[in-house]
Design brief:
By secondary structure, the chain is mainly α. 54% of the residues lie in helices and 3% in strands.
Length: 477
């Protein structure tokens, strides 16, 4: 089902926040009184300039951008911690830096008060670079990498989680005076939206061993499991949107229109796919009556867009036009699935059609990849007003090291190390997570194979772990 995978991979609106190329030494000139101090700070200036060049270059891939930003982060931590501990930080001439936001809101550079937010904006840029990498991996025309894209979004979620929890240290940020990415409610929402993208790409990856085309009569294996995964990502998206609207409604409305429309589209289409896969799952078990009910529910969300637009769902116009063909193909497959289930029921099974069925239970398999804050790069810097330098203040300590113009970026690569995966609610220390040996039964093997894995790999994972969910987690990691 290539069209389903294309729809699940739709992500737009991610851009890497970029800083204005402004020297730290110039901004802090009022607190630097001797050549030794200025020379020491110029090392950080070189690193910042290289970082700016990396994130603004069209020739640097998002994976490299994230690596360059991580290379700069220890120096930023040193400068920020030093500034916060200095008497100058309490003055009324706080240094100001400028960043261009990446997810909407302020188009152009926004003034950021104080060095403390230099670290936070760097982390926000790292998060956005990972998200952009995930989007690019999933959107490749040839051999899209859904697994790698999911892992990249898990890394982006980890960086946004660090911002949301103020893991960078210090007090929280004013919601209205900071770029959108720095407000805790928006950072939490972006974290959850990244996880929603990771969950969607997991479903897309699971379709790898399904029908190689959009043939409507091809029954999708493992439909019940895929329905649960669709229900899981829809729940994550709905919770994220509801939380941002409740806690940062004005800021949420400032996010790019294309970004918000994509979220609405994914929620609507996700509900349709949830019931679509559920119908396949019931057909696998010869439950044609339930399959008819689920297929009809799927068509409520996969029907012609004008009727959906009237109920608040986005029309397939503008940037969504490119996905219109895929939506039409899935709609056709769902309609044929309904007809197939009705034929089977009228000629073979003669089952009653339920008046109502509960939606599939939500399940997710990807987890946030923890963001590891690197240590500071050097000894604390000592900021004092330039007029006080005659009394001996203003030294900076050891040199910060040497940084070239490229920040020692790694070579281009599409490879992303998979994020750790566990089903929500599982505990790594619980008995259920303890590997157990034994022969895998055929039903479990078919379930894992339906997720897109090779049969031999499925048998090995099930033999090692003795549990379908743990086997899938190990194969995804």
């Amino acid at each position: 089902m290539d069209s389903v995978a294309k729809i699940l991979a739709l992500n737009v609106g991610w851009r890497t926040p970029t800083p204005k190329d402004e020297a730290l030494s110039e901004t802090l000139s009022a607190w630097i009184g001797d050549a030794e101090a200025r020379d020491a700070l110029s090392v950080a200036d070189e690193a910042r300039a290289a970082m700016v060049a990396a994130v603004e270059s069209e020739h640097v891939e998002p994976q490299q951008q994230a690596a360059g930003l991580m290379r700069y982060l220890p120096l930023a931590r040193t400068a920020c911690a030093s500034w916060a501990a200095s008497p100058a930080a309490s003055g009324d001439r706080s240094p100001k830096f400028w960043w261009k936001t990446g997810m909407g809101g302020t188009f152009g550079f926004k003034q950021v008060d104080g060095l403390a937010q230099e670290v936070s904006m760097t982390i926000a840029a790292i998060a956005a670079a990972h998200a952009l990498a995930g989007m690019n991996l999933a959107h490749r025309e040839l051999n899209p990498d859904y697994k790698g894209g999911a892992a990249a979004f898990c890394r982006a979620a980890g960086a946004f989680d660090a911002l949301a929890k103020s893991a960078v240290g210090g007090a929280g940020f004013n919601l209205h005076d900071s770029p959108l990415e720095l407000s805790a409610p928006v950072a939490e929402g972006l974290r959850d939206l990244c996880m929603g993208a990771a969950h969607r790409l997991t479903v897309a990856f699971s379709l790898g061993a399904a029908a190689a085309s959009d043939a409507a009569d091809a029954t999708i294996k493992g439909g019940a499991l895929k329905a649960k995964l669709c229900a899981g990502y829809v729940a994550v998206l709905e919770n994220a949107i509801a939380s941002m609207r409740a806690n940062a409604g004005a800021e949420f409305e400032q996010l790019q229109t294309s970004f918000r429309l994509t979220l609405a589209f994914q929620v609507a289409i996700g509900r349709g796919l949830m019931w679509f896969f559920a119908a396949h799952g019931h057909l696998e078990k010869d439950e044609s009556g339930k399959a008819i009910y689920c297929a009809k529910q799927a068509m409520l969300y996969l029907r012609e867009r004008p009727s959906l637009t009237a109920t608040g769902h986005p029309p397939l116009t503008g940037f969504l036009e490119e996905i219109a063909g895929a939506v039409e193909a899935v709609r056709g497959a769902a309609a044929e699935l309904e007809r197939q289930a009705e034929r089977d029921n009228n000629t073979v099974y003669f089952q009653s059609i339920p008046e109502e069925l509960p939606p599939p239970t939500a399940a997710t398999v990807m987890k946030i990849a923890a963001f590891e804050m690197p240590p500071s790069a050097a000894a604390m810097m000592h900021f004092v007003p330039a007029s006080d330098h005659a009394s001996g203040g203003g030294s900076f300590g050891p040199a910060l090291g040497s940084f070239g113009p490229t920040l020692d970026l790694p070579p281009p690569s599409d490879a992303y190390v998979g994020a750790p995966v566990l089903l929500d609610g599982d505990d790594e220390e619980s008995p259920a997570a303890t590997p157990s040996s034994g022969e895998a039964n055929e039903a479990d093997i078919e379930t894992v194979v339906a997720m897109g894995f090779d049969r031999d790999a499925a048998v090995r994972a099930l033999t090692e772990h003795g549990d379908v969910e743990l086997a899938i987690n190990s194969l995804l990691s």
